[in-house]
């Protein structure tokens, strides 16, 4: 007799950064007016209803960025505060709220004192206490760590401007012609992966380079990034020798 596979509880399948990108596309087209699900999915970049598109829509709802169903999907006030804040604090507080909205996220932070435990410990907790299957637990941990990395960025570069967190060290702003985003830890982007991959390395005692890939990572994407960096050299000069 076939044994049915245990399903994990509902959890975000995409990171907060990707969810914000998708909800921004909806807002640019419909503002906070209600639209149908099919139109919402197409604005998010999907062809229509499918497993991945339904999971993405559910994830955005779990972050509290959209509400409603069927013929009445609309962007929430929380999403508008994040996308078009009146000041930096409003955006920061909105991001913190969205990041803690999904089920289990706040519980895990509370249980472990605001920190994320090792993967093995967290996976065991998810499987034994929250009803996840092993694959679902792994996916949950991946998204949770991506969100934590995003929230811990020392600065974010948006619309050509640099916004700094209160506890960050001031860094030089980048020009809007270079689509680079900060990451948190040194990792190598995984070719063919979909989601958020980051690369961070120190090039001098005073300078750390961070590159953030959003979407499918390919050799072509990396080669294009290198070309942008080559062009960016013209915007800077070497510091004079002492």
Descriptive terms for the model:
242 residues; alpha+beta; two-stranded antiparallel sheet; 12% strand
Architecture overview:
This protein is of the alpha+beta class and 242 residues long. It is 43% helix and 12% strand. The chain has 9 helices and 6 strands, in the order H-H-H-E-E-H-H-H-H-H-E-E-E-E-H. It has helices at residues 16-30, 37-43, 51-62, 77-83, 88-100, 105-111, 119-130, 134-151, 219-232, and strands at residues 66-67, 74-75, 155-158, 161-164, 196-204, 207-214. Strands 1-2 form a two-stranded antiparallel sheet. Strand 3 and strand 4 (161-164) form a beta hairpin. The protein is globular, with a radius of gyration of 20 Å.
Please give the order of strands in the largest beta sheet.
Answer: 1-2
User: Count the helices. How many?
Assistant: 9
Q: What is the structural class? A: alpha+beta
Overall geometry comes to globular
Rounded mean pLDDT score: 79
Q: What ranges have pLDDT less than 50 throughout 5 or more consecutive residues?
A: 155-194
Indicate the proportion of strand residues: 5-15%
Span of the ends, CA to CA: 78 Å
How many β-strand runs?
A: 6
- Rg on CA atoms, Å: 20 Å
Largest sheet: 2 strands, antiparallel
How many domains, as an integer? 2
Which H/E pattern describes the elements?
A: HHHEEHHHHHEEEEH
Task: Give the proportion of residues in helices.
Answer: 40-55%
């Amino acid at each position: 007799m076939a044994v049915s596979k245990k399903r994990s509880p509902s959890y975000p399948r995409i990171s907060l950064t990707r969810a914000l990108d998708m909800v921004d596309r909806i807002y640019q087209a419909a503002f906070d007016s209600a639209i149908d699900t099919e139109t919402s999915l197409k604005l998010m970049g999907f062809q229509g209803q499918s497993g991945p598109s339904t999971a993405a829509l559910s994830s955005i709802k779990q972050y509290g960025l959209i509400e409603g169903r069927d013929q009445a999907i609309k962007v929430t006030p929380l999403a508008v505060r994040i996308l078009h804040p009146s000041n930096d604090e409003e955006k920061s507080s909105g991001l913190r709220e969205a990041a803690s909205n999904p089920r289990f996220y706040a519980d895990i932070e509370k249980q472990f004192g605001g920190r994320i435990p090792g993967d093995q410990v967290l996976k065991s907790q998810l499987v034994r206490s929250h009803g996840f299957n092993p694959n679902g637990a792994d996916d949950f941990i991946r998204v949770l760590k991506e969100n934590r990395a995003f929230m811990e960025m020392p600065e974010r570069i948006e619309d050509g401007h640099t916004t700094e967190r209160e506890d960050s060290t001031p860094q030089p702003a980048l020009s809007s012609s270079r689509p680079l985003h900060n990451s948190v830890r040194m990792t190598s982007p995984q070719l063919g992966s979909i989601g958020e991959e980051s690369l961070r390395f120190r090039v001098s005692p005073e300078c750390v380079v961070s590159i953030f890939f959003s979407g499918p990572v390919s050799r072509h994407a990396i080669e294009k990034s290198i070309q942008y960096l080559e062009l960016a050299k013209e915007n800077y000069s070497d510091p004079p020798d002492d």
